[in-house]
């Protein structure tokens, strides 16, 4: 993961204030049932496959950190554009894009051309948390969808599962997100699963030592060794915490006990600057919930200020937008 270019960071932060203001109830007149429709589709997706809502929730982080919350993440590759779905942190990792397709299809039937894909990501992330027992909150809406995407920008910005707390603090600070925000937002791993691929180095060659990460609790390491044996199938998935279908503070309790699945999770307890927040959230679920909501709202405010549209299909830009680009 490379540092953001100063000019890109400056543009992103400046346009947070300069872009059209986001506000609650943005669709109250143009598409009153919008938020109900999103939650209804998310609820059905969770019944069909419980893991799917956790997968959709992660879209907000992977979208907003790369040139703002503009649904660039959802664009498929074209002959002239390498999108973000196959970026290093996303390929074979992000999934359940079809759930967003289902949300968009339902919204287009009810209110054609009104609700942006970027706002769908924000609403769906909130609903994923609420539907699995976590907090519910009022989201600010009114985003536009990007006209392009950048695999290169995603590769340069998004962190690896191997990231340590120090590098994560530096990354989040570039978006005006605090250490507390970092730890709280990492609590998104309260639900869902991750692949063995992401932890093989922790189990067998931490920091090139040829040994496992000493921070892993021995009993938990034995469990992970069985789940993810050397030379085994690295696409096998494991739970990110002990209650992977329930959004709660068990994730932080697991970190305190040395039972974090990813290196980028466990490092939050081993690193002094983040440890106190891990301990706080492990002891006080309401404190975690409040901090998580604050972090999600702050992350959701990131905007690029670039021209946008409301896509009719979240995977492709509208044909009119393509024509405009070709003429310019």
TrEMBL record:
<keyword id="KW-0964">Secreted</keyword>
<dbReference type="GO" id="GO:0006979">
    <property type="term" value="P:response to oxidative stress"/>
</dbReference>
<feature type="signal peptide">
    <location>
        <begin position="1"/>
        <end position="19"/>
    </location>
</feature>
<keyword id="KW-0106">Calcium</keyword>
<feature type="binding site">
    <location>
        <position position="248"/>
    </location>
    <ligand>
        <name>Ca(2+) 2</name>
    </ligand>
</feature>
<feature type="disulfide bond">
    <location>
        <begin position="196"/>
        <end position="228"/>
    </location>
</feature>
<dbReference type="InterPro" id="IPR010255">
    <property type="entry name" value="Haem_peroxidase_sf"/>
</dbReference>
<dbReference type="GO" id="GO:0042744">
    <property type="term" value="P:hydrogen peroxide catabolic process"/>
</dbReference>
<dbReference type="GO" id="GO:0140825">
    <property type="term" value="F:lactoperoxidase activity"/>
</dbReference>
<feature type="domain" description="Plant heme peroxidase family profile">
    <location>
        <begin position="21"/>
        <end position="318"/>
    </location>
</feature>
<keyword id="KW-0376">Hydrogen peroxide</keyword>
<dbReference type="GO" id="GO:0046872">
    <property type="term" value="F:metal ion binding"/>
</dbReference>
<feature type="binding site">
    <location>
        <position position="159"/>
    </location>
    <ligand>
        <name>substrate</name>
    </ligand>
</feature>
<feature type="binding site">
    <location>
        <position position="63"/>
    </location>
    <ligand>
        <name>Ca(2+) 1</name>
    </ligand>
</feature>
<keyword id="KW-0479">Metal-binding</keyword>
<feature type="binding site">
    <location>
        <position position="84"/>
    </location>
    <ligand>
        <name>Ca(2+) 1</name>
    </ligand>
</feature>
<feature type="binding site">
    <location>
        <position position="241"/>
    </location>
    <ligand>
        <name>Ca(2+) 2</name>
    </ligand>
</feature>
<feature type="binding site">
    <location>
        <position position="68"/>
    </location>
    <ligand>
        <name>Ca(2+) 1</name>
    </ligand>
</feature>
<keyword id="KW-0408">Iron</keyword>
<protein>
    <recommendedName>
        <fullName>Peroxidase</fullName>
        <ecNumber>1.11.1.7</ecNumber>
    </recommendedName>
</protein>
<feature type="binding site" description="axial binding residue">
    <location>
        <position position="189"/>
    </location>
    <ligand>
        <name>heme b</name>
    </ligand>
</feature>
<dbReference type="InterPro" id="IPR000823">
    <property type="entry name" value="Peroxidase_pln"/>
</dbReference>
<comment type="similarity">
    <text>Belongs to the peroxidase family. Classical plant (class III) peroxidase subfamily.</text>
</comment>
<keyword id="KW-0575">Peroxidase</keyword>
<feature type="binding site">
    <location>
        <position position="66"/>
    </location>
    <ligand>
        <name>Ca(2+) 1</name>
    </ligand>
</feature>
<comment type="function">
    <text>Removal of H(2)O(2), oxidation of toxic reductants, biosynthesis and degradation of lignin, suberization, auxin catabolism, response to environmental stresses such as wounding, pathogen attack and oxidative stress. These functions might be dependent on each isozyme/isoform in each plant tissue.</text>
</comment>
<keyword id="KW-0349">Heme</keyword>
<dbReference type="GO" id="GO:0020037">
    <property type="term" value="F:heme binding"/>
</dbReference>
<feature type="disulfide bond">
    <location>
        <begin position="64"/>
        <end position="69"/>
    </location>
</feature>
<feature type="active site" description="Proton acceptor">
    <location>
        <position position="62"/>
    </location>
</feature>
<feature type="disulfide bond">
    <location>
        <begin position="31"/>
        <end position="111"/>
    </location>
</feature>
<dbReference type="InterPro" id="IPR033905">
    <property type="entry name" value="Secretory_peroxidase"/>
</dbReference>
<feature type="site" description="Transition state stabilizer">
    <location>
        <position position="58"/>
    </location>
</feature>
<keyword id="KW-0732">Signal</keyword>
<comment type="similarity">
    <text>Belongs to the peroxidase family. Ascorbate peroxidase subfamily.</text>
</comment>
<feature type="binding site">
    <location>
        <position position="72"/>
    </location>
    <ligand>
        <name>Ca(2+) 1</name>
    </ligand>
</feature>
<feature type="disulfide bond">
    <location>
        <begin position="117"/>
        <end position="314"/>
    </location>
</feature>
<dbReference type="GO" id="GO:0005576">
    <property type="term" value="C:extracellular region"/>
</dbReference>
<feature type="binding site">
    <location>
        <position position="243"/>
    </location>
    <ligand>
        <name>Ca(2+) 2</name>
    </ligand>
</feature>
<dbReference type="InterPro" id="IPR019793">
    <property type="entry name" value="Peroxidases_heam-ligand_BS"/>
</dbReference>
<keyword id="KW-1015">Disulfide bond</keyword>
<dbReference type="Pfam" id="PF00141">
    <property type="entry name" value="peroxidase"/>
</dbReference>
């Amino acid at each position: 993961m490379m540092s953001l270019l100063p000019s890109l960071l400056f543009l992103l932060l400046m346009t947070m204030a300069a872009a059209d203001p986001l506000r609650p109830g943005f669709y109250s007149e143009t598409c009153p049932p919008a938020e109900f429709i999103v939650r209804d589709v998310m609820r059905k997706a969770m019944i069909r496959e419980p893991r799917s809502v956790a997968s959709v929730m992660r879209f907000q982080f992977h979208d907003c950190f790369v040139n703002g919350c503009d649904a660039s993440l959802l664009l498929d590759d074209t002959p002239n554009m390498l999108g973000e779905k196959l970026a290093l942190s996303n390929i074979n990792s992000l999934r359940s894009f079809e759930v967003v397709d289902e949300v968009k299809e339902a919204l287009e039937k009810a209110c054609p051309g009104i609700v942006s894909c970027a706002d769908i990501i924000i609403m769906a992330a909130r609903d994923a948390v609420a539907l699995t027992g976590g907090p519910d909150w009022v989201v600010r809406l009114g985003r536009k969808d990007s006209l392009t995407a950048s695999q290169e920008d995603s590769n340069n910005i998004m962190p690896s599962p191997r990231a340590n707390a120090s590098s994560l603090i530096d990354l989040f600070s570039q978006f005006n997100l605090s250490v507390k925000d970092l730890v709280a937002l990492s609590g998104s791993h309260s639900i869902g699963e991750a692949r063995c691929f992401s932890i093989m180095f922790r189990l067998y060659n931490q920091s090139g030592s040829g040994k496992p990460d000493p921070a892993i609790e021995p009993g938990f390491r034995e469990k992970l060794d069985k789940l993810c044996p050397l030379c085994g199938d690295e696409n096998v998935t494991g739970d990110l915490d002990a209650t992977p279908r329930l959004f709660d503070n068990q994730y932080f309790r697991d970190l305190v006990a040395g039972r974090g699945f990813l290196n980028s999770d466990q490092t939050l307890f081993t690193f002094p600057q983040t440890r106190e927040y891990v301990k706080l959230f492990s002891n006080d679920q309401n404190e975690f919930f409040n901090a998580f909501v604050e972090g999600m709202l702050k992350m959701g405010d990131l905007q690029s200020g670039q021209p946008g549209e409301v896509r009719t299909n979240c995977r492709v830009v509208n044909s009119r937008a393509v024509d405009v680009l070709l003429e310019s």
